[in-house]
């Protein structure tokens, strides 16, 4: 799962990033309005943590832009501004939740998981597709009750493909979602090919009722033949 932290205070941003990474999320950051606007316009995220007081603009204006662009990311407003008007306006503009500062990280994690379940998994704690079952919170997967042992990137790829089942996912979109900002350092997609190859073999060896189809030169699609 890929999260964008929009927060201008360096210490708070670093704390949020460190805490979310410990929960195995891929985390990207933006420290001002313009960089945040650029990121949400170019990339897709599963959840956005949004501060309202940003250099160069207001977080509520960023919510309006998300709405105009018909973006589907879950948004949790994380702000020291704890007024009722801000909460109402933020929720009316499409935010999923509002968490006033200061807060406990455990509460933030619980709210992020809640938003992800509602947005990605129809409110269910486990994802079921044929005989494949996935627990996004525990980063575990099973085929017909037998655990599928995956490394972190294999799990992230599988979860992303499952949430986009029967859709063609481009190599670029997959790389950006699973590797995030680090994709800029890559010369090619060889690192994806090896992970996909291993994942496909593990699914086949376990008799999974789903398979990953490669669309030559474009990307991949998870299907249940």
List the helices and strands and how they pair.
Layout (H helix, E strand, L loop, with lengths): L1 E5 L3 H13 L3 E5 L2 H10 L4 E4 L2 E2 L2 E2 H10 L5 E6 L4 H9 L4 E4 L4 H16 L6 E3 L2 E4 L4 E4 L2 E3 L3 H12 L5 E2 H9 L10 H16 L5 E5 L3 E5 L2
Parallel strand pairs: 1-2, 1-3, 3-6, 6-7
Antiparallel strand pairs: 4-5, 8-9, 9-10, 10-11, 12-14, 13-14
Helix pairs in contact: 2-3, 6-7, 6-8
CATH superfamily of the largest domain: Response regulator
Low-confidence stretches: none
Task: Please tally the helical runs, counting DSSP H or I stretches of 4 or more residues.
Answer: 8
What is the highest CATH level, the class of the largest domain? Alpha Beta
User: Shape from CA axes?
Assistant: elongated
Strand content: 15-25%
Write the CATH architecture name of the largest domain: 3-Layer(aba) Sandwich
The N- to C-terminal Cα distance equals 26 Å
Radius of gyration: 18 Å
Number of strands: 14
What characterizes the major β-sheet?
5 strands, parallel
Number of domains: 2
- Mean pLDDT rating: 91
Order of helices and strands: EHEHEEEHEHEHEEEEHEHHEE
Looking at this protein, list some descriptive labels.
alpha/beta; 14 strands; 4-stranded antiparallel sheet; 2 domains; 225 residues; Arc Repressor Mutant, subunit A; Rossmann fold; 24% strand; 8 helices
């Amino acid at each position: 799962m890929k999260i964008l932290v929009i927060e201008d205070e360096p210490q708070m941003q670093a704390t949020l990033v460190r805490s979310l990474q410990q929960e195995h999320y891929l985390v990207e950051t933006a420290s001002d309005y313009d960089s945040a606007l650029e990121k949400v316009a170019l990339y897709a995220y599963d959840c956005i943590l949004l501060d309202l007081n940003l250099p160069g603009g207001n977080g509520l204006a960023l919510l309006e832009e998300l709405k105009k662009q018909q973006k589907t990311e879950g948004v949790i407003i994380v702000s020291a501004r704890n007024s009722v008007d801000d909460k109402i306006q933020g929720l009316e503009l499409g935010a999923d939740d509002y968490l006033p500062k200061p807060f406990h990280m455990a509460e933030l994690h619980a709210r992020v998981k809640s938003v992800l379940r509602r947005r990605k998994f129809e409110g269910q704690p486990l994802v079921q597709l044929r005989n494949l079952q996935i627990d996004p919170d525990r980063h575990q997967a099973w085929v017909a009750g037998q655990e599928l042992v995956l490394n972190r990137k294999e799990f992230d790829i599988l979860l992303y493909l499952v949430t986009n089942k029967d859709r063609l996912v481009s190599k670029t979109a997959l790389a950006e979602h699973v590797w995030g900002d680090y994709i800029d350092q890559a010369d090619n997609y060889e690192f994806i090919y090896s992970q996909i190859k291993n994942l496909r073999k593990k699914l086949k060896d376990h008799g999974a009722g789903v398979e990953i189809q490669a669309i030559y030169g474009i990307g991949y699609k998870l299907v249940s033949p």
